[in-house]
């Protein structure tokens, strides 16, 4: 059995103003920041609103032990936009690396976890956001990094 949530890859914080947030984090010594690498096209892509997903802005900083991601959702309807509107800025999801995304998704479904969004590239890389906010307090994601 592949452990689903063992290797933390990143923490994603939803923010209202990406440039302001990056400036603040830099002022306290966190950075450097880079644009989120969107990667290649997805062979499978099931998200609540593809246009809203494409319009989100991300910045990332690689720390010694984990990546920090900042996400500014557009005004279009998305889970991240709804989170920001309801709760304000804060941790939206925890992303965990997995060696086998298909197996991790299968294990999550087998454990009764619903899926919020998912995407898979031809090489097996991609992501799967589970519907865990009510129980975990945050959305839990599994991902396989594109090689």
TrEMBL record:
Gene Ontology terms for molecular function: lyase activity; metal ion binding; methylmalonyl-CoA epimerase activity
Metal-binding keyword on record: yes
Transmembrane segments: none
Gene Ontology terms: biological process: L-methylmalonyl-CoA metabolic process
Superkingdom of source: Bacteria
Pfam families in alphabetical order: Glyoxalase_4
Limits of the VOC domain: 7-145
This protein's record includes keyword Metal-binding: yes
Gene3D superfamilies, alphabetized: 2,3-Dihydroxybiphenyl 1,2-Dioxygenase, domain 1 (3.10.180.10)
SUPFAM superfamilies linked to this entry: Glyoxalase/Bleomycin resistance protein/Dihydroxybiphenyl dioxygenase
InterPro entries in the record: Glyas_Bleomycin-R_OHBP_Dase, MMCE/EMCE_epimerase, VOC_core
Keywords tagged on the record: Lyase, Metal-binding
Protein name (database record): Catechol 2,3-dioxygenase-like lactoylglutathione lyase family enzyme
Species: Nonomuraea thailandensis
Upper taxonomic lineage: Bacteria, Bacillati, Actinomycetota, Actinomycetes, Streptosporangiales
């Amino acid at each position: 059995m592949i452990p689903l949530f063992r290797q933390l890859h990143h923490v994603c914080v939803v923010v209202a103003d990406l440039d302001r947030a990056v400036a603040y984090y830099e002022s306290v010594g966190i950075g450097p920041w880079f644009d989120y690498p969107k990667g290649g096209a997805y062979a499978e892509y099931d998200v609540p609103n593809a246009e809203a997903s494409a319009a989100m802005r991300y910045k990332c900083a690689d720390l010694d032990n984990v990546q920090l991601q900042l996400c500014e959702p557009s005004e279009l309807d998305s889970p991240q936009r709804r989170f920001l509107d309801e709760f304000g800025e804060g941790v939206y999801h925890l992303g965990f690396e997995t060696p086998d995304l298909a197996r991790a998704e299968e294990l999550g479904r087998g454990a009764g976890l619903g899926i919020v969004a998912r995407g898979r590239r031809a090489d097996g890389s991609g992501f799967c956001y589970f519907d865990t906010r009510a129980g975990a307090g945050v959305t839990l994601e599994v991902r396989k990094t594109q090689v």
